[in-house]
Design goal:
Length: about 400
């Protein structure tokens, strides 16, 4: 247990104040609940949503539903939102502000928090790449993060003017973050390295929270059933997954893929499945309780082509003793020990993922061994209480530094 001097008021801030938004938000609310259990801490959270809402320990500020308007306020100062945010912050009067995602009213928010000691958990690569992918147009991983030599290589899509807007917002956010944030925390050593390369000082590695106990039956699973859990977006590699699963189905027509998640590609992916005549093999489940999928399926497939900060769903698979088939890049390759806790595949080598799927579908012992090894590896990670203690320790250091 980490002990600190006196009491502290902690303000947690994120973009989307919703637990169902994604892995970063899951971490955000897990942290909030854990901090509230610590003696001497008063915790309040602030974020954005479709409508304004407030409660005893939170405030939700209404944000625009228009993507162009949201992009505009990422780049420019909004006096009205600044005053609204400033008032909420002053009313709580925090000792420490802990930022998470800051892509909504970015300029106004960062100016509002500037008078306070600020720490940030960096959940993705948007601080070093305007798209957050940190890959070039060739889809190869960028070794440095965006710089003067490779800025054109980071463009996604054909709209150059839109990319320039992303660039402007990126540099504005990057400059303000360096002025405002005194300490950066990242969920993987690789992301810490990228932050250091881009002159984000005082970056440290603190892992995300992970499930420590699972009640799942390790043996109750279907050998032909696989799962994907995440956003239905290009950078997640979901289209590659469907193409490779179709190839695998040519050799084993009994394979099942259950896809849990939502996103902008959902309709086009459903059309692709129909064109491939795989309606009896691939199912779109929407957002469901992941425990149901872990109970039914033999393995999680994690096919991201954009560089991930961590990949929280992989630790959920490990906690449930399920094998993982993951793309061989970034923290995925760091988290998965190939052929020991999971299988790595080259996302740009045709048939590579399909072969891994077919292998686990027929080798029950291998699938069980990979899942059990992953479960044991998870036990070697920092416990959730140790993670909370490490974060509180950073709060105390920052408060003492600010007082000196």
């Amino acid at each position: 247990m980490c002990y600190f001097i006196g009491s502290m008021k902690i303000l947690l801030i994120t973009d989307t104040h919703s637990e169902s938004a994604g892995g970063a938000e899951k971490h955000f609310f897990t942290l909030k609940n854990a901090l509230k259990k610590q003696a001497g801490l008063t915790v309040f959270s602030l974020g954005f949503g479709e409508k304004a809402e407030s409660g005893p320990d939170f405030e939700i500020v209404k944000s625009s539903s228009s993507l162009p308007i949201r992009q505009w306020w990422r780049m420019f100062f909004s006096p009205a939102k600044y005053q609204e945010l400033k008032q909420v912050i002053e009313n709580f009067s925090p000792d420490i502000i802990h930022l998470h995602n800051v892509r909504t009213y970015t300029v106004s928010l960062l100016k509002a928090v500037m008078p306070y000691p600020v720490i940030q958990t960096v959940h993705d690569y948007t601080s070093i790449c305007p798209t957050g992918w940190n890959v070039h147009n060739t889809l190869q991983v960028c070794p440095t993060g965006l710089n003067a030599l490779c800025w054109r290589e980071h463009q996604r899509g054909k709209n150059f003017l839109l990319y320039l807007a992303h660039l402007f917002a990126f540099y504005k956010r990057k400059t303000l973050l360096k002025k405002t944030v005194k300490k950066f925390m990242a969920p993987s050593p690789l992301l810490v390295t990228y932050l250091e390369k881009n002159n984000f000082k005082n970056a440290i590695y603190i892992p995300p929270f992970h499930p420590e106990n699972s009640t799942i039956d390790r043996n109750n699973k279907k050998m032909n059933c696989f799962m994907y859990i995440g956003q239905l977006e290009k950078h997640k590699g979901i289209d590659i997954l469907i193409d490779e699963f179709a190839l695998a189905c040519q050799h084993n027509q009994n394979l099942i893929l259950k896809i849990a998640g939502k996103g902008s590609l959902k309709k086009s992916l459903e059309q692709k499945v129909q064109q491939l005549k795989l309606e009896n093999n691939i199912f779109f489940c929407g957002w469901v309780n992941p425990q149901e999928l872990f109970q039914e399926c033999i393995a999680l497939i994690f096919p991201s082509i954009g560089l991930e900060a961590f990949g929280l769903v992989m630790t959920e698979a490990m906690a449930n003793a399920r094998a993982i088939i993951g793309s061989d890049r970034g923290p995925t390759a760091w988290l998965i020990d190939d052929k020991k806790t999971g299988l790595l595949f080259n996302p740009f080598k045709q048939y590579d993922l399909a072969e891994k799927i077919l292998l686990l579908a027929v080798d029950k012992q291998m699938a069980a061994n990979l899942g059990n090894n992953g479960y044991e590896k998870l036990k070697t990670f920092m416990s959730n209480q140790e993670i909370v203690d490490a974060i509180i320790q950073q709060y105390e250091h920052l408060r003492l530094q600010d007082a000196s």
